[in-house]
Amino acid sequence: MSWMKLRGDSRVSPRHLFHSNGRGSPGLEFPYSAVVVFLVLSTLYIPLLPLELTRANFGGDGGDFLAAILTHGVAHPGGYPTYLLLGEAFQFIPLGTIPWRGALLSAISTAFAGGLVSLWVWHFLSPHSLSGQVISLIAGLAWGSAPLVWSQAVIVEVHGLQALMAVIWLWWVTLLRKGVRHTGGVSFLSWIAGLSLGNHLTIFLFIPALIATILPLILKDFRGRQKLKFWLVQGLTFLLGASVYLLLPLRAQMYPPINWGNPQSWEGFWWVVSGQPYRGLVFHTSVEGMLERISAWARILLEQFGLPGLVLGVLGAVISDHDKVDRFQGLLLWVFGSFSAFAIGYDTPDSLVYLIPALLAGAVWVGKGAMLTFQWHWRGWRLGWLVSIGMLVFLLGRLPETARQVDPRMETEVEQFAREVLQKAPTGALILTEADEDTFPLWYAHFGLGERPDVQIIVLPLTQFLWYRETLRHIYPDLHWPSTDDLAGSAWGEALPGLNAGRPVCRTHVEREYQIQVRYECR
Q1: Among positive and negative, which fits the CA dihedral 413, 419, 423, 428?
Q2: Confidence of residue 23 (pLDDT cuts 50, 70, 90)
Q3: Quick one: how many helices (H) and strands (E) in the chain?
């Protein structure tokens, strides 16, 4: 006889698996676990928020985002209008520094997302009982305390907000799949889903799951001659949210100093919102590089949930409980597989951050795996309680080490670099930069904070674009410019020192041989 046996019929609804009377425990109908997850994650994230600009945790774009937020500009492709609007709103908070408030947006978004993960598991997978609270608590904490998720929750970046948007998409598609027709609540989620398009373009990976969900339902309503008003409302509210992109051409008309693509024209608008400069990076990795990334992907998954979490996640992903819970498996598999494939195939060093939605599916499977263990008994003990308590102990025990691993507060050399350059640059100097690492911190200090208005910052690689040349002419009208725009590449920018011979010149240089180092020299 096996030491581990199934209790009862596995086809029984999970809401009745853990109760001798078949009912939920009194007082446990409220998802306390979701509130606990939000509070715990907020307590973990907020103390680690940096007071200065940092490049830690792949946060090198923070200077560009903050400069665009502070100048009402247009960030690098794809524009990120939703993130910029929320970033501006958080700058009104009368606490901390500008980078701290920018990172607070990531922290609150990710903590709220963790609470919604817990709530999703509690509502759709687990029973409304003490065991259900524990299961949903494990799922929310497993996701929110994963090193990759935590690393993006404490810096100025879009991925904390993207995590929240991914969870909202999970809720939205799930409710549509279950046939929920409460127009007000579902329409609100439709509007948020549309807004999410203005945060990061990878949210489009949810679109196939959405189409697979709603198309059969729309056809069913159409064949049944039912009114399609509900679907019309969802489409309109979704488009209303997506209209946030209209913010970009409106801002561009004011010629802010951060004005990527100058999206006043359709060509400039499409260049920004489609992420045109980065499209060549998608699945550009060689076969050898792809194999290395797949190996790294497996290692990263293990690092996020640990061996106990990985075992529970595999259990939840591969074992069917013959219940309506498994209707969500296809959705979870798509989210996990599509975002994993994109992270593996996108040829940048920081592409692993695109695994965060995939980890969302993994955390749900961890919760489901813990739920399945409650069906097993061993010598009169419910194995699920032992597994759940052990998993919680594991998650809590690794928090100090993870906090040390993702703490961004010590890596503030980028702001120190910008401060030093602007302090030592001669009066009226032309500062010529060559990459993101040297440009974004200087943009933040010069344009965002208004330091050294007498100097002019020229990004040489961007001078190949007409939109950037036009922006420079508007923000530095006193400089002398080349008489023709036919100069190729950075030659247009290199001609500026000769045309403005009375101005000192500072050049920055980025070294990446062992680690990123930024240097400068003035003459």
Answers
A1: positive
A2: very low
A3: 22, 7
For residue 523, give the nearest of 506, 499, 503 by alpha carbon.
Answer: 506
d(CA 273, CA 251): 14
Q: Residue 507 gets which letter from DSSP?
A: E
The burial of 14, by beta-carbon neighbours within 10 Å (0-12 exposed, 13-18 middle, 19 or more buried), is given as: buried
Within 11-129, residue ranges assigned H as helices are 32-45, 62-71, 81-90, 98-124
Q: Which residues contact 292 (CB under 8 A, 6 or more apart)?
A: none
As given in the structure block, the two tokens for residue 106 are 């990531």
Residue 9: exposed, middle, or buried by beta-carbon count in 10 A (0-12, 13-18, 19+)? exposed
Question: 3-state SS of the chain: helix, strand, coil percent to 5?
Answer: 65, 5, 30
Rounded Cα gap, residues 346 and 354, in angstroms: 9
133: its two tokens? 């609270």
Burial (CB < 10 A; 0-12, 13-18, 19+), residue 354, is: buried
Q: Which pLDDT tens digit goes with each residue over 484-496?
A: 777 777 789 899 9
Binned at pLDDT 50, 70 and 90, residue 514 comes out as low
From the number of C-beta atoms within 10 Å of its C-beta (0-12, 13-18, 19+), residue 3 rates as: exposed
Amino acid at 312: L
CA angle 497, 487, 431 (to 5 degrees): 30
Supply 79's token pair.
Answer: 């524009």
What's the rounded Cα separation, in Å, for the pair 430 and 504?
Answer: 6
